[in-house]
Every structure is written in C-alpha cells, then in structure tokens.
Amino acid sequence: MSLLSAIVFSLAAVASAGPASIRRHVSHLRSCYDFVVVGGGTSGLTVADRLTESFPKKVVLVIEYGEINPTPGVFDPPTDWITASPDQAPTWIFSSLPNSALDGKTALVLAGQTVGGSSAVNGMFFDRPSRYDFDAWSEVGGHAYAHWDWNGSVTFTAPTRAVAERCGYTWDVSAYGGTTPIYSSFGDFQWDDQPVLNGTWQDMGVRVSRECAGGDKEGICWVPTSQHPVTARRSHSGLGHYTAVKDTRPNYDLLVKHQVIRVVYPKGLKRGPPVVEIRSLADNSVFGVTVNSEVIISAGALHTPTILQRSGIGPKAFLQGAGIPVLIDAPGVGSNLHDHSGPPVQWNYTHYGDFSPVPEDMLNPSFKANATAGFDQIPATGPYTLAGGNSAIFVPLPNITANYTSITSKIRALVASNSAASYLPPGPDYASSPEMVAGYKAQLIALANLLDNPRAPSIETPWATGQIAWAFLLHPLSRGTVRLNLTDHLAQPILDYRAASNPIDIDIHLAHMRFLRRITKTDTMQQYGAYETAPGPAVSDDDEAALTEYIKKTIVLSFMHPCCTAAMMPRRKGGVVGPDLKVHGASGLRVVDMSVMPMLPSSHLSATAYAVAEKAAALIIDEWKSK
Ligand SMILES: Cc1cc2nc3c(=O)[nH]c(=O)nc-3n(C[C@H](O)[C@H](O)[C@H](O)COP(=O)(O)OP(=O)(O)OC[C@H]3O[C@@H](n4cnc5c(N)ncnc54)[C@H](O)[C@@H]3O)c2cc1C
Ligand SMILES: *[C@@H]1O[C@H](CO)[C@@H](O)[C@H](O)[C@H]1NC(C)=O
Ligand SMILES: *[C@@H]1O[C@H](CO)[C@@H](O)[C@H](O)[C@H]1NC(C)=O
Ligand SMILES: *[C@@H]1O[C@H](CO)[C@@H](O)[C@H](O)[C@H]1NC(C)=O
Ligand SMILES: *[C@@H]1O[C@H](CO)[C@@H](O)[C@H](O)[C@H]1NC(C)=O
Ligand SMILES: *[C@@H]1O[C@H](CO)[C@@H](O)[C@H](O)[C@H]1NC(C)=O
Ligand SMILES: *[C@@H]1O[C@H](CO)[C@@H](O)[C@H](O)[C@H]1NC(C)=O
Ligand SMILES: *[C@@H]1O[C@H](CO)[C@@H](O)[C@H](O)[C@H]1NC(C)=O
C-alpha cells in the first residue's frame, strides 16, 4: 500500500469506526495508528485518554495482554481465582529467584493483567509521596530532570461531616487541587480498635498529621482509598481512563488478549517510530502494527524491560548470550529492580478492650456474609470498603534512631571507597559497567541524603487494627534484575530480587525493628496487657545476630511495588530514558510507567503512576502540538 493510500485508508477507518469498541482480533484494527500504547494498565490508559482527548484526529491503539472484566481486587471478597485457575487469574503471579542474602527466600509478586492493570486489583491505598522523593530523582539525574518535581493534582472528595466524625478523618483539600477521572475518598467503615495503635504511635513520639498528601509525608496519617465517594466502588484507570470516555472517542482503540513481543525498526533506529510486533493469545499468530508518531511502552516495571530486551535494547552481554541482535547497549534495561520489603512485629494482649467490630469477626460466617452483602450493594458498605486499611505512620530515620548518622556515613563511605559495586550483580552488564556503577553511586548519595533528612520518611507502617505492624523499608539500597527467560523469551521474565544484598539495608531494618518493638511498652498498649509474640522475648534488642536472623526469616520481600527497571537518568549513569521519557538512542519510543522512576518514593505506587503518566502525556501533547 502506498503511503498516500495508507493515510486515506486510515482516515476512512476513523470516519466509519464510530464509538471506540474493544477489538479482539487484528483484522479489526486500522491499517496504521498515530500512537500505540503498549499495556492498558494504570499509566498506559492515562496516557491514551489524554492523547485521544487532545488529538481528535489522531488515532490511538492500546494493546493489552489481559481482558476487560470486572476483576476482584486483592482485598475484595475472596474468590479462588489465584488457586483455582492461575492461567485465568487477572494478575501475573511471580516467584523470584532464591534470594541468597536471605537464606534462599523468594519474593511472591503480583501485577495486574487486565484492562486497568494493577490499579484494577490493588489495595486502593492512595497516598502521595514526599516532596523530597522527587528532589532525589533530580539529584541523581541532574538539572535536566528537575521538572520532575512534586507538583501535580489528584481528585479528592471530602467525606461528609457525619462520616468524618464517626471515623475521625482529617484532611486538607488544598493539598490536592485539581480533578482527574480517578477518585479518592474516605469510606464509612473503621475497625473499632483502629485508635489503639494511633495512641501507641503518639506515646512513641510520632506526631499527628492532619494531611500527608501535601508533600510533607510524615507522622500519623490518614490515607484516602481509591474509590468513588458515593458508590464506594473501586476507581481505577480501566474505568476512569477508558470505559468512561470511550463512547465519545472514535479515535481510541483497545485491542485485548494480545502480547506485545517487541518493537522493530525496519528503517533503522534513527527512523522511528518502530513497528509493534504482537502475538494473539487466541491463535498465536504474529502481526506488525504500523505507527506514525510514537510508541509508548507502559507494560509495568516487570514487563516493560522484557519488551525492550526482546527488541535488542538492553544489556549487551545478556542479549548476546540470549541470541538477540543488539540494537542499543542499554545496561539499565531490567536493572535497578527494587521494591518495598520488611519484617513484622507481632503482639497479643492479656486483656484487650471490648472492641467491636474487629477483624477477627470476619471468622464468623454470618458477619462475613453480611460484609460480602454490604460490598455487593451500591453504595458499598462495610469492612471491604476499607480494603487493607487507611492509616499509616511515616517516620524519618532521625526520629527512629539517634545513631542514624552511623548508617548514612556508612553509605557515603561505601561510595568514597569505591566498593559500592561489590554489592551489584557481577558481570559486564552491571558491576563492571562504569555507567551502572556511576548511577548506583549517585543513587546511594541521594539516598543517604534522604535518610539524613528529618522531614523525609524512612519507615512506613500501615495499620487498620492492632496485633501486627510491618516495617516497610521505604528507601532500599539493594538492587536486582529482570531478565528474559533464556529458554522461552515470551515466558514470564526471571526476577532476581537480591534484597538485602547491600548489607546496610539490614542495618536500616534493625533500626526500624528496634523502633517498632517499642509498641508493646507504651502506656496505651500496657493498659491492655500487650506482650510481644514476634520477635518475642527470647530475642533481645541488643542481640544483633538474633534480631538479624529474625528479620531474614520473616521479611516479606515484595509489598507489590516493583519499580525502576528502565530508569529516567542520564545514559552515562545507566539510565534508560531521558527527562522526556524517550528511550536513549531510539526514535519514536518512550516508556511511561513505574519502570521510569530512578528510585522508589515513600508511598504506594498507584498515585505516582497516574502522576507520572499525566506529566508524560502533557510532554507528549506539547511536543506534537508544536510540530
Ligand atoms: C496486588 C497489588 C496490590 C497493590 N496495592 C497497592 C495499593 O494499595 N496502593 C497503591 O498505590 N499501589 C498498590 N499497588 C501498586 C500499584 O498498583 C502499581 O505499582 C501501579 O498500578 C503500576 O502501574 P503501571 O502503569 O506501572 O503498570 P500496570 O498498572 O501493572 O500496567 C501494566 C499493564 O501492561 C500489561 N502488559 C504487560 N506486558 C504486556 C505485553 N507484553 N503486552 C501487552 N500488555 C502487557 C499488563 O497486563 C498490565 O495491564 C499494588 C499492586 C499490586 C499488584
Ligand atoms: C502546580 O500545579 C498546579 C496544577 O495542579 C498549577 O496550577 C500550578 O501552577 C503548579 N505550580 C508550579 C509551581 O508549577
Ligand atoms: C521527629 O522529631 C522531631 C523532633 O523531636 C519532631 O519535631 C517531629 O515532629 C518528629 N517527626 C515525626 C514524624 O514524628
Ligand atoms: C490519631 O488521633 C488523633 C487524636 O489524638 C486524631 O486527630 C487523628 O485524626 C488520628 N489519626 C489517625 C490516622 O488515626
Ligand atoms: C492471644 O491471647 C488470647 C488470650 O488472651 C489467646 O486465646 C490467643 O490464642 C492468643 N493468640 C496468639 C496468636 O497468641
Ligand atoms: C449488616 O449488619 C449491619 C448491622 O447489623 C446492618 O445494619 C446491615 O444492614 C447489614 N448489611 C447487610 C448487607 O445485610
Ligand atoms: C551506632 O552505630 C554503630 C554502627 O552501626 C555502632 O557501632 C555503634 O555502637 C552505635 N552506637 C550506639 C550508641 O548505638
Ligand atoms: C523458563 O521457561 C521454561 C519454558 O517455558 C520453563 O520451563 C522454565 O521453568 C522457565 N524458567 C524459570 C526460571 O522460570
């Protein structure tokens, strides 16, 4: 087909397509697209929504591996899809390689595999990071990256006065400012003993914060839930950025049940955008989608690197070993993997208060049936509208240990002595790559500064009730990898978490644990006869070896926040994308999802995924408007 007839054909297709509809077969696609978004998840649909809105004459295709379906979230009434039919599950389920620093422990990691991606299945905890997290990104990247600052907007609907009084919520609307089609609100349910831990934190000297979404992320925080303020139903990108707009957007196509294999540059890297090669999950047939303007990869931090690696954009030695021709030697692709992790403190009471309801009530079949019925109503009511809870503490390291500089000076000494690389994965693609080492050192310095900052949190402990408290390590120093499976490049990638491979992470965990172990000693807890059950009385705070052993045994390696595997950093520091999210060295190709963060923020990731995507969309729109 000539170029002219291709253009005429695609315009005709736009004119006759009518409202966007879901496509399940490539024969229903147009002959070419202006923009193709790979992955219909949290970030991808946000970008597609903004592009189709701003450019009514440009056609956008989103290609998604999963289906459009009502998907049970992780805290929704139990269904047995994970165990019954993992192939049909609306999530990817990964088990990482054994973690050698942690006695061979493996990480269990989930990721959404459905229209809406992880936002459609997640825990709906909708918190925003600290302003200092973004400052750290530009500290690593340099001046060109400074526009990735904290500023942005989120929709928040305040609770009614009655709900606010019943549940005790506080907020400050000025922290949010703005509207997006993604809702966040406070539900009308709280476990009756939620205030017990709040009192405990205050006894421990943690300050009460009225609002933590305004860039100051510290203290005892209320955190909104990503649900509709009236229906109390989940709000996610599939609903807000596709279903809600599709009927008014004849230029918005969605192809489901297709796996993007790779991108191909038939005319060379400088003459993008690339063709997007896809595979039908129904019949395995392979097809190339032609693109006019740009390809945007938004397959999430675990899959985006697989698409780049299959395309020949990745760590050179690894690609050569895999038999993939090297298009761009980009050692950062699939490197820099990290996640939030942490061990718990657990306790029991000799005489607890007469609280009702408490989570143990869910063991009572009639209470649980009532909770499920409440969840199925519109508006939804009851325990399931609380998801995993909506309160947490965020505490800076200087408030956790007076000895915090011993940790941060150790980090700086590691950089100064040129031994940081010894904790990176060995080999030419990582520990022996000057770029990767330079980037890691820059990250360590930025992380030491964050940990010294009395306003930037080091630990998060979310809670909904009281008997267990997890110590989330917000700023891990260890780095792992995502690599293709060498026997089957289309299979799930191999995750090597390498948590605690930098032993200073254990020092930070120790400080966090010693802090959390003060819980049972507080006046609030003592009034109920609280006693620690884990680590328990046999493990003394001073017995570093025993406490370390406990941490290694009980640590949960993934709180489902894998990130940073196509980091936004300069190429000379092992970065994969630049400040405009364009892949270094490739034309017509960007990455927009949680892979682009250089380092984890002090938050759960969904609000940041939306924010990164909104900002990326604004950059892309500006660029194409001025063309
Ligand atoms: C179980 C769970 C609980 C969580 N809890 C919370 C929480 O309470 N609060 C919070 O803020 N965050 C939470 N998170 C994290 C947060 O939801 C994610 O970090 C964020 O949504 C990721 O957004 P993304 O755009 O990077 O990727 P995703 O939203 O995961 O989107 C990636 C999409 O790409 C698709 N895809 C992948 N590979 C291909 C391919 N080759 N071809 C085509 N399509 C492909 C996937 O199917 C998916 O739909 C949770 C995550 C999970 C999994
Ligand atoms: C911050 O973002 C808001 C919109 O969310 C915008 O109105 C404001 O000008 C921005 N401020 C700065 C300093 O960029
Ligand atoms: C940390 O300690 C300082 C000094 O005591 C205090 O002002 C601040 O409120 C504390 N921060 C938190 C989050 O509790
Ligand atoms: C904690 O308790 C204080 C009152 O002591 C209250 O103002 C605040 O809203 C509570 N916060 C949370 C998250 O429970
Ligand atoms: C907690 O204590 C109660 C009695 O006070 C006991 O019945 C229960 O088994 C204990 N739970 C654990 C996990 O130790
Ligand atoms: C659940 O129980 C509460 C309290 O008894 C009741 O008000 C509510 O209507 C019940 N919900 C459903 C869905 O049955
Ligand atoms: C501070 O930390 C260092 C290094 O971890 C340790 O050697 C020292 O004993 C600690 N000092 C105090 C007072 O805890
Ligand atoms: C790699 O893929 C093969 C073939 O699908 C599979 O048998 C193997 O278990 C995978 N390897 C890993 C480590 O997951």
TrEMBL record:
Catalytic site positions: 561, 604
GO MF annotation: an example: oxidoreductase activity, acting on CH-OH group of donors
Binding site for FAD: 42-43, 260
Pfam families (UniProt xref): GMC_oxred_C (PF05199), GMC_oxred_N (PF00732)
Highest taxon of the lineage: Eukaryota
Matches recorded under Gene3D superfamilies: FAD/NAD(P)-binding domain (3.50.50.60), Glucose Oxidase, domain 3 (3.30.560.10)
Cleavable signal peptide: 1-17
Coiled-coil intervals: none
GO BP annotation list: secondary metabolite biosynthetic process
Named cofactor requirement(s): FAD
Sequence ranges assigned to domain Glucose-methanol-choline oxidoreductase N-terminal in this UniProt record: 300-314
Family (UniProt): Belongs to the GMC oxidoreductase family.
Identification of the protein by name: Glucose-methanol-choline oxidoreductase N-terminal domain-containing protein
Originating organism: Podospora didyma
Taxonomic lineage of the native organism: Eukaryota, Fungi, Dikarya, Ascomycota, Pezizomycotina
